[in-house]
Amino acid sequence: MTCLAGCGGADGDVVARSGKLELTRGELLASISFDGASDSLAAASMYIEDWRDMAALYQRALVDGVEREPETKLLIEKASRQITVQRFIDRKITAASANGLFRIDSSEVSAFYERHADAFVCAEPHVALVRYYAASAVQAAKLRAIAVETGAACLPDSARDAVPEYAELNRKSFSAGRRLRRQSRLFLENGRMHSILREMTPGDVSRPIALNDSLIVVMQLLDRVETGGRMTLDQCRGDIEELLIVEKQKQYYTTLLETARETYQ
Question: Cβ contacts of residue 124 below 8 Å, gap of 6+?
């Protein structure tokens, strides 16, 4: 039996079994991501189901001796090298970032914007839209009042406290929604939200919109640039910073690769 809180006794860290294989709580928690308690149960259940299927097939393959075949060994060795290299690169980039190697200053952002100004003319409407999620009408009303009061300044603690079950989801939505993006790439939950958005102007906060019996959303339009308009430097600063960071990371990777080649070739 699957026990997300662990199975009692000496095997308390085991959450699932398949034949001789065991799935530990540590592996499970390291393998899933979630935004709240209900999401964690769903993610855990899906992962455990997939793990059981894979574990059963793996053990059946062992019976046939597939792991002893030369081609299998070569594929395992190749996969092992790729995983090891990727983890090495990730650690190096993380350390370099912590040391400020990829830091971007305002002059770099301004220079990029001036060189590529035409790239920031919008071929279609762009919007910065935040969605706040609630589990009840009362929570949604509280979130709307907070959004109206605070505007685009921040997502205050009171908003997180108002809907604890969706606190992480709302944090991510606020973080992502503050940047302009193509309106056509907004994946809104239903057609009514699209209709309401078309009538909103920057600063507007929508009335609560029920998505189902236990999920209600409030939309806040922070900014909009219409077709043919040029985004200002402040409007695209975050996107430019990300592009410049990626370029510095690519340069760092190239240097890392060249050093390794000089050492081992």
Answer: 182, 183, 184, 227
Nearest partner of 218 among 163, 179, 165, judged by Cα: 163
Helix (H, G, I), strand (E, B) or coil at 24: strand
Complete domains list, the chain, with CATH: 1-68 (no CATH), 70-121+233-265 (no CATH), 123-225 (3.10.50)
Chain position carrying tokens 């193509």: 182
DSSP state of 177: H
Count of CB atoms within 10 A of residue 155's CB?
Answer: 21
Helix intervals (H) in 178-232: 191-199
User: What is the average pLDDT value for the chain, to the nearest integer?
Assistant: 88
Record the pTM: 0.70
Task: Work out the burial of residue 131: count CB atoms within 10 Å of its CB; fewer than 13 is exposed, 13-18 middle, 19 or more buried.
Answer: buried
pLDDT band at 161 (very low <50, low <70, confident <90, very high): confident
Position 172, amino acid: K
The SS3 of residue 218 is strand
Q: What is the pLDDT of residues 94-121, one digit of tens each?
A: 999 999 999 999 999 999 999 998 999 9
User: Which residues neighbour 239 within 8 Å (Cβ) at sequence distance 6 or greater?
Assistant: 179, 180
User: Cα separation of 9 and 93, whole Å?
Assistant: 42
